[in-house]
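Obj: model holo form, ligand = flavin-adenine dinucleotide.
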Amino acid sequence: MVHGYKGVKFQNWARTYGCCPEMYYQPTSVEEIREVLALARQQNKRVKVVGGGHSPSDIACTDGFMIHMGKMNRVLQVDTEKKQVTVEAGILLADLHPELGKHGLALSNLGAVSDVTAGGVIGSGTHNTGIKHGILATQVLNNLDSHLKKSEYFRFLWFPHSENVSVIYQDHTNKPPSSCANWFWDYAIGFYLLEFLLWVSTFLPGLVGWINRCFFWLLFTRKKESSNVSHKIFTYECRFKQHVQDWAIPREKTKEALLELKAMLEAHPKMVAHYPVEVRFTRGDDILLSPCFQRDSCYMNIIMYRPYGKDVPRLDYWLTYETIMKKVGGRPHWAKAHNCTRKDFEKMYPAFPKFCAIREKLDPTGMFLNAYLEKVFY
Ligand SMILES: Cc1cc2nc3c(=O)[nH]c(=O)nc-3n(C[C@H](O)[C@H](O)[C@H](O)COP(=O)(O)OP(=O)(O)OC[C@H]3O[C@@H](n4cnc5c(N)ncnc54)[C@H](O)[C@@H]3O)c2cc1C
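Output (holo structure tokens):
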């Protein structure tokens, strides 16, 4: 149980602002943070996180619960190849610099002081200078733009109910075809096991998070492959029957939408989501009813398998996803499941009336309509 302190007085570094929080906590884990938040919710208290306390305003002040992040200051992972580092939010940049230095790495830009925390500089939009450099938050490790620039066919997969993401780069190559043998998948053992486990999880939904995490590790033992034909790279043998939704959202909304979906799953542990959430990117175009009409887009595909043909309840997950997609200006894939009608499409597509006029001229008697298209056009 996390211990809280009464009577602590907080002052910012410049001593220009201060406060007396009712309770002051220094959690050491995410679990302990959850405990504080649960208590705050129960007692109807406000919560404020504080990092290095260097903000020259009262932004970190509260008379409710204060969470000081100083004990969550570890470097969790360093990937020198990708130049990516995972840290806890309470780490002081002053402590991070020497850790990066050990691996020949450094922050590409930072503010004028280092007695500030990773969480603080990201949360407050800290910046320095250089027209090619964004604010510090743009260095955050899952920086989408740099991935998109790095690989011609970049995509990533998120494994719901976990923190696991698989990043997939695919590029043209002159190298001869090669592949990595992976007995687990090549002899279909993985598929049989997965289908069986998914079926079991229809009785024990709590297993799904565990399955997603396990299969993240099993799937990504496969590292590098090259091929001289595109269909061998882009297609795969899809052995499972499944329900899917796949909406195109403005590319810049990717992170917001994914984080909201993740937060919703965390807030509703009974809502089950099979892996993966596949995130792909496409260039904008000028095709009147293209989901990518006039904007670069991110397609966020969600999936629910049907192990041995059995439907797994998905309504809550489906509605949650659709609500988020609509909120960020999404447009559903025409071929995949959605509940949208003409009213929705009129809002989504600026050229919808133009398309309808063309359609009505070319098919005045509605000969080419079916039930699906009636929902779209009437
Ligand atoms: C001498 C000095 C020089 C500075 N130079 C620059 C500069 O060059 N460029 C610039 O842009 N700014 C500069 N700043 C401002 C400073 O970078 C920001 O105030 C920064 O937020 C301080 O980080 P901190 O860890 O002290 O955050 P705090 O002041 O403790 O908190 C700032 C905000 O971040 C939130 N926060 C902190 N940690 C977390 C977390 N883990 N999770 C969620 N939210 C969190 C807090 O709730 C608060 O809203 C300077 C400040 C000083 C005192």
